[in-house]
Amino acid sequence: KQEVTQIPAALSVPEGENLVLNCSFTDSAIYNLQWFRQDPGKGLTSLLLIQSSQREQTSGRLNASLDKSSGRSTLYIAASQPGDSATYLCAAGDGSARQLTFGSGTQLTVLP
Amino acid sequence: GAVVSQHPSRVICKSGTSVKIECRSLDFQATTMFWYRQFPKKSLMLMATSNEGSKATYEQGVEKDKFLINHASLTLSTLTVTSAHPEDSSFYICSARPPGQLNYGYTFGSGTRLTVV
């Protein structure tokens, strides 16, 4: 059974810092890995999707990498802003690309 | 594209009553939708897979008679929490993806905060 872990559980940084969020998964036979953002009391907003054949994806200040062999993905946020404050979730898509297994998230606070 | 709408966003109900939550795919047809539950500061746990025109597939430990799922059309799935109790209070969220688009990420609804008093 796939297990997804996110470290750290919470992170507080001053505005402008570059930061890395970590995601690890136990079963490397994933179809893809997706990063989401969740604001308090809200749904999930998809940030980046990495297919199993890809190594990274970029969108603006965000860059996500995937290393299937080590069971790890990272989300890099450049030049963080207070508006980036949210919970970031990673989810591993299983081999049939049907089911997502979520990590418990990293709660990010960017201080002005 | 690929917008999922969920309604209501918040609901408060009395213990023993039933509550229906709707999940709609607005710009695509979804033969499959997924229902998740999220506890405070916890991850999303898959409850069930909703299949259009057939019975839902429930995850282990999820009570089928408590959480009724109906997927009567290609754009609508409903989750009914029957005889709700305070322990059913949680954040429920649905997701879907355009069919056949395996390289497309899942889109999530905005979630429903259920409070049972």
Over all CA atoms, what is the radius of gyration of chain A?
13 Å
Instruction: Compute the average pLDDT of chain B.
Output: 91
Please summarize the sheet with the most strands of chain B: 7 strands, mixed
Biggest beta sheet attributes of chain A: 6 strands, mixed
Distance between the termini of chain B: 37 Å
Report the order of strands and helices of chain A: EEEEEEEEEEE
Query: Strand-residue fraction of chain B?
Result: over 45%
Low-confidence stretches of chain A: none
| Element pattern of chain B in H and E | EEEEEEEEEEE
Global structural class of chain A: mainly beta
* Computed structural class of chain B: mainly beta
Q: Please compute the radius of gyration of chain B using only Cα atoms.
A: 14 Å
- Uncertain spans of chain B, ≥5 residues at pLDDT below 50? none
Number of strands of chain A: 11
Counting copies of identical and different chains, the oligomeric state is heterodimer
Q: What gap, in angstroms, lies between the N and C termini of chain A?
A: 41 Å
**Cα shape of chain B:** globular
Tally of contiguous helical segments of chain B = 0
Give the % helix of chain A. Answer: under 10%
Q: Beta fraction of the residues of chain A?
A: over 45%
Commentary on this structure:
The complex is a heterodimer of chains A (112) and B (117). Chain A has strands at residues 4-7, 10-14, 19-25, 32-38, 44-51, 56-59, 62-67, 72-77, 86-93, 100-102, 106-111. Chain A is an all-beta fold and 112 residues long. In chain A, strands 2, 4, 5, 9, 10 and 11 form a 6-stranded mixed β-sheet that branches. A 5-stranded antiparallel β-sheet of chain A has the order 1-3-8-7-6, with no helix packed on it. Helices cover 0% and strands 50% of the residues of chain B. Chain B is built from no helices and 11 strands. In chain B, the strands form 2 sheets. In chain B, strands 2, 4, 5, 6, 9, 10 and 11 form a 7-stranded mixed β-sheet that branches. Chain B has a 4-stranded antiparallel β-sheet with strand order 1-3-8-7, with no helix packed on it. In chain B, strand 7 (67-73) and strand 8 (76-81) form a beta hairpin. Chain B is globular. The chains are: A mainly beta (112), B mainly beta (117). Chain A binds chain B through residues 4, 31-32, 34, 36, 41-46, 49, 51, 89, 91, 97-105, 107, and chain B through 6, 32, 34, 41-46, 49, 91, 93, 95, 102-111, 113.
